[in-house]
Specification:
The complex is a heterodimer. Chain A is mainly α. Helices cover about 75% and strands about 0% of the residues of chain A. Chain A has 13 helices and 2 strands, in the order ααααααββααααααα. In chain A, strands 1-2 form a two-stranded antiparallel sheet. In chain A, α2 packs antiparallel against α12. Chain A is globular. The N and C termini of chain A lie close together (about 10 Å). In chain B, α4 crosses α5. By secondary structure, chain B is an alpha/beta fold. In chain B, a hairpin with a 2-residue loop joins β23 and β24. Chain B has a 6-stranded mixed β-sheet, sandwiched between helices. The chains are: A mainly alpha, B alpha/beta. At the A-B interface, α8 and α9 of A face α10, α11 and β20 of B.
Chain lengths: ~325, ~500
């Protein structure tokens, strides 16, 4: 028998089967589950995780994490709203919002790669700073008055029957899938996460690469924040609490190793959909959010456990 | 004849489509050093894993002291008195010697560690083996050899009656090997049976009482070491054909200096100057700690250094390995698993890492070209694998080393630094690696070999540079008619002699 299926493909197949089982079960239990409107509703909800998670998956493949993405989502949205309110053209306001994420991404990257702060600590620090800044900018209140017309277009408008946000998420996903699987950049990310020593001795500038991926993560968190604010029609400093963990859940469900070296962006998208469908389905079934949180924890550990059990069996 | 301590009877291990072990049978008498030799893939590791309960046999039986022995876990094997000293040592660097010795067997009261007669015995065992090791010292500060001694003491104190040593000398200098052998003799006196696995046949001839040769998962022979007619006979048994290593002078273009190094200095090296001519294989020899790896790493930009490096007469500056690769210097690192390979990645993903240019355009790579490249190297270097998609972690040591070589060859370097190129590699693969290095030199690359195995240096290198304490002590021209005096070389390398005349 030749080893035709690689480990990460196997994990993806397992997560994909979990997703399919979940969809089948939910559509039997809740008749309104498999409707177009409901599907779009779920897709809209998972766009944020998919946009940010695409970059964060690459980051985790290198063996690093970013805990600041939830706060960056809030800060970028707030900056977008404040700029828009102050008559800065919408496009530029959006760009500034994304720019805040970019700047924090660079900061995180420098802290981790140049100043050698442990990645969890560095991004935990940024998490507090960014959250604090979004409270300062808004004085702790949600900004929803005086926003220009069109502020909500990127978050709510559709092209044909598909929300713009969903299209953006799919594009981002495809770009990162391309980066991961077709480019030298992606190969290097796997190499750094798999064996940093060997990567350095192979002439890979790991610091430079990790720095650029942190920047991408920050930027994608910024983009998510702008879309979120537009969708809410407000710059709310409280959004995105726990968002960093939603991303990590999706990434890990998708078969990315927390230690780095293996993983996949597509797997992350499947993971995000599992979480999205699950909470949506539970909503439809009338299960309260308190219980949903419990479910999320169970499914995370359960899926990882199932994955390792199946792999052990096949060995 | 006395009852053997361990009888292996018709052991087979089958994986789907592969017979790793095929009807292996032999006896291990008590209180001897019993060596197991064989090429990589001959079944040595599989046999050890079965002995220690890491995997289950498919068929056959084992008798330990005349009793049916069928371990289901490593712990069970240890309880039965079989311990293993793995190639990758199982010591915790951050803990002290004392803590390591009792790790897992601490004497506790209410969870608090206390000292008692039981722990005292472990310390005594260590003291007996090597009194120079301090109990309070952190293990990370110990040399490889001393770490090994700590592990041996731990196993002996746990009442091991059989101690399996898997390539114990792979990371040791000749001096340390001598010391290990003294310890092995002591163990035998203490009625510990040692199962000794090594690629170094000279060691086996020296330390072994019995030798079992495995080939392709089968027992070829079990012999008393005293009855073996030299290493050639062992090699013949292992390979089924004779391989004799002799020095073949390279064709050297004396007018063309590919590499010139002047006054290379850093905290470990003092004023290293040498040159490599076109087609020449230069060898650095020295004991562990003499500075071989440091020279390689400095030239490769992996460690900071001062000095001048010229390639083809042009001065180059290497700040880091990436610079080095761009300037035409590449390195096969000392430790292939931790420094050379990406174990979770496939062969085809490992090979192009140093140089993607040939298979990519605008940093987007071409899957077809990548596969073709891997297939070509698998064919050229005779890497034994059924697919280029195979994870390198699943390859044998020799084949892993060939993947590292392929990775470096792909960088198209003018200067190839090879740090311990055949460490932990079987005789057949070693031969092939030598052949690859000679071919590279013949094509005009400068090959610099760093090795702590003198036979390797003598067989391969045209010029031999002896290092001692970070300094060059002597430069010797190899000679096909008259082999350099290895005793003198050893004396210089241990600091006993200043010059080679």
């Amino acid at each position: 028998m030749s080893k035709s299926i690689s480990k990460s493909t196997l994990t993806q197949l397992i997560t994909l089967s979990i997703l399919i089982v979940l969809v089948v079960v939910l559509s039997i239990l809740a008749p309104e589950f498999l409707t177009y409107n409901n599907m779009m509703n779920v897709l809209r909800q998972v766009t944020f995780v998919i946009i940010t998670g695409s970059a964060a998956t690459m980051l985790m493949i290198t063996g690093h994490m970013d805990l600041s993405v939830g706060s960056l989502l809030a800060l970028s949205g707030v900056v977008f709203a404040v700029c828009a309110m102050n008559d800065i053209p919408l496009f530029l306001a959006g760009l500034l919002g994304v720019g805040v994420g970019f700047a924090f991404g660079v900061l995180n990257g420098i802290l981790v790669t140049k100043l050698k702060v442990t990645h969890v600590i560095a991004t935990l620090g940024s998490m507090y700073v960014a959250r604090g800044l979004s409270y300062i900018v808004t004085d702790g209140k949600s900004i929803n008055a005086g926003l220009p017309r069109g502020f909500d277009s990127i978050g709510r408008k559709m092209i044909g029957t598909i929300p713009i946000a969903v299209i953006i998420a799919v594009l981002v996903l495809l770009i990162f899938f391309f980066l991961e699987s077709k480019t030298v950049f992606g190969k290097y990310a796997f190499a750094i996460g798999g064996n940093k020593n060997a990567a350095t001795l192979s002439g890979i500038k790991s610091n430079r690469l990790v720095l650029s991926i942190y920047t991408l993560v920050g930027t994608m968190a910024g983009l998510s924040g702008v879309i979120m604010a537009s969708r809410l029609g407000a710059g709310d400093p409280n959004v995105g609490n726990g968002f960093e963990f939603d991303c990590i859940v999706a990434i890990v469900l998708g078969g990315t190793s927390v230690a780095g070296g293996s993983g996949s962006v597509i797997g992350m998208a499947i993971g995000a959909l599992i979480v999205g469908f699950l909470s949506n389905g539970l909503n439809l079934l009338g299960v309260g959010t308190f219980y949903q949180t419990v479910f999320k924890g169970v499914i995370l550990v359960g899926a990882v456990l199932l994955d390792s059990l199946i792999k052990k069996k096949l060995k | 004849m006395e009852q053997p301590i361990l009888s292996i009877r018709n052991i087979s291990k089958e994986y789907p489509g592969v017979k790793a072990l095929d009807d292996v049978s032999f006896d291990i008498p008590a209180n001897v050093v019993h060596c197991i030799v064989g090429e990589n893939g001959a079944g040595k590791s599989t046999l050890i894993k079965i002995l220690t309960g890491a995997i289950e046999k498919t068929r056959g039986s084992m008798l330990l002291n005349g009793q049916e022995y069928y371990p289901k876990s490593i712990k069970e094997a240890m309880r039965a008195g079989i311990s293993v000293l793995y190639q990758e040592l199982n010591v915790v660097d951050e803990l002290t010697v004392e803590e390591n010795l009792t790790l897992g067997a601490e004497d506790t009261r209410f969870g608090v560690i206390r000292h008692s007669g039981k722990t005292q015995r472990v310390y005594e065992v260590l003291h007996e083996i090597d009194p120079s090791i301090q109990l309070k010292e952190k293990v990370e500060k110990l040399s490889m050899a001393k770490k090994q001694i700590v592990e041996i003491a731990k196993a002996v104190a746990a009442n091991a009656s059989i101690l399996i040593m898997d390539e114990p000398t792979a990371a040791l200098s000749e001096e340390e090997v001598r010391k290990l052998f003294t310890i092995i003799h002591k163990l035998r006196e203490q009625e510990v049976t040692v199962i000794y696995i090594s690629h170094r046949l000279d060691e086996i001839m020296e330390i072994g009482d019995y030798v079992t040769v495995l080939r392709d998962g089968r027992t070829i022979a079990t012999k008393q070491a005293s009855g073996i007619q030299g290493q050639e006979e062992l090699i013949q048994l292992m390979l089924g054909k004779i391989v004799i290593q002799t020095y073949v002078p390279s064709v050297i273009d004396t007018d063309q200096k590919v590499l010139e190094v002047e006054h290379l200095t850093n905290d470990k090296l003092h004023d290293i100057s040498f040159e490599a001519l076109k087609g020449e294989i230069v060898g650095f020899y020295g004991l562990v700690g003499a500075g071989k790896t440091e020279v390689a790493r400095a030239l490769f930009g992996a460690d900071p250094c001062e000095g001048t490096i010229r390639i083809d007469g042009k001065e180059v500056h290497v700040r880091d390995p990436r610079d080095a690769i761009r300037q035409g210097i590449t390195m096969v690192p000392e430790e292939r698993r931790t420094q050379g390979l990406f174990l979770e990645l496939s062969i085809k993903d490992n090979i192009p890492v140093m140089n993607y240019k040939k298979i990519s355009r605008w940093n987007v790579y071409n899957k077809r070209k990548q596969r073709e490249m891997a297939v070509q190297y698998i064919k050229d270097l005779r890497i034994a694998t059924n697919s280029e998609e195979k994870n390198v972690s699943l390859l044998s040591g020799g084949n892993q080393q060939k993947v590292v070589l392929a990775k470096c060859l792909n960088a198209d370097a003018k200067v190839l630094l090879l740090d311990e190129p055949s460490r932990g590699v079987d005789v057949g693969a070693k031969d092939e690696i030598f052949h690859i290095i000679r071919e590279l030199a013949a094509k005009g690359s400068a090959c610099i070999v760093f090795s702590s195995e003198l036979p390797e240096i003598l067989a391969l290198c045209d010029k031999i540079i002896l290092l001692y304490e970070g300094k060059i002590r002597a430069v010797i021209q190899n000679n096909a008619e008259k082999q350099p005096d290895s005793e003198k070389i050893m004396q210089i390398s241990t600091g006993g002699l200043d010059k080679y005349e």
